[in-house]
Amino acid sequence: MQIQTLEDFQTVRARWGEKLLILGHYYIPDETIALTDRQGDSLALSQLAASNETCEAIIFCGVHFMAETADILANSPEKVARRGGKRVPVLLPNFLSGCPMANMATMREVNECWTRLGQLIDTDEVLPVTYVNSSADVKAFCGRYGGTVCTSGNARRVLEWALSQKRRILFLPDQHLGRNTSLAMGIPAEEIVLWQKKEGAPAAALENARVILWEGFCHVHHFMSAEIARTLKAQNPDARLVVHPECSQAVVSQSASAGSTAFIIKEIQNAQPGESFIIGTESHLVERLKNTHPELKIQHLGEPHQCVNMARNTLPALFGALEQLENDALENVVTVPEEIAADARIALNNMLALG
Ligand code: SF4
């Protein structure tokens, strides 16, 4: 059967019932998110995928690393054994939906960094920590060395734990989340060092480093301008600037508050009618907040910044994923080999154990 219209989709969707779970990240287009069963940020959605006991298939409207995380958590050997050996396939509506920031830390680069770091400092003193926005390989690397994963919502708690375990952290792949969180924890700027893929970092700086940052960034947030933030704040003195911690420190330092997408949504939900906001995050979410809260004055931090990879979760892409399930012709399944998934699960479970 071909699924070409909303009616086709709804007919087939109804037939699948609870056997199918459709998840949608906050940054995907409105018309697609309207057809998802649950919405959230990447980790919350993966946890939903892991805790669901009834579904036999998942469509994850997001990007590749999110589907990987859902696969790792939903298809642990214990869960697969409980299902009599059956895996829950995790489908990505569009296989081109990658995350450029996750792709900024390849395993070749991370291994090379670890080797070179070992020539400059004692890596037994370094705990690798990765933002959940990273490949399964990088999560597995962290798990292998006793490290962990964090989200933008729990980064501070995770980094505090990590620094109670080892003298230093290697933080992958988002330099901004690592820097903003470390500074908020009171770590002096001279103890936060950027590792550059080509040049590395000076041995003297590394000797004092408590946090070694990878060079990655999310282009959606990285290019939000501190200059524009200053101008908009001057033009709208009553407006609160609320931004995502993937923005640069120059932007975050001007904000009234910074936090995850879930945090930003809560700030808006708790606002009083008439309040004014400048929001620094992905434009699909900002537009949705504007539309659902007409009682507030909400504007983007400068030009709207869209994640093109999230935007690839179009209705035809979602229809195509459901069609693959319906016709038992699976193509867009994201599967993490168990030897990688096992180590990645160690890192994820180290985070989940922190509560
Ligand atoms: S918004 Fe940024 S971090 Fe999120 S998927 Fe897009 S590029 Fe990656």
What's the gist of this structure?
The chain has three domains: 6-98 and 311-336, 3-Layer(aba) Sandwich (Rossmann fold), CATH 3.40.50; 101-217, 3-Layer(aba) Sandwich (Rossmann fold), CATH 3.40.50.10800; 224-304, Rossmann fold. It is 46% helix and 14% strand.
Describe this structure in words.
This protein has 355 residues and is of the alpha/beta class. The chain folds into 3 domains: 6-98 and 311-336, NadA-like (Rossmann fold); 101-217, NadA-like (Rossmann fold); 224-304, Rossmann fold. Helix content is 46%, strand content 14%. It has 19 helices and 13 strands. Strands 6-5-7-9-8 form a 5-stranded parallel sheet, sandwiched between helices. Helix 8 links the parallel strand 5 and strand 6. The protein is globular and about 65 Å long. It binds iron/sulfur cluster (SF4). Iron/sulfur cluster (SF4) is lined by residues 27, 63, 99-101, 133, 218, 220, 282, 307, 309-310.
Fill in the keyword field for this structure.
single chain, alpha/beta, Rossmann fold, 3 domains, 4-stranded parallel β-sheet, 46% helix, 14% strand, globular, binds iron/sulfur cluster
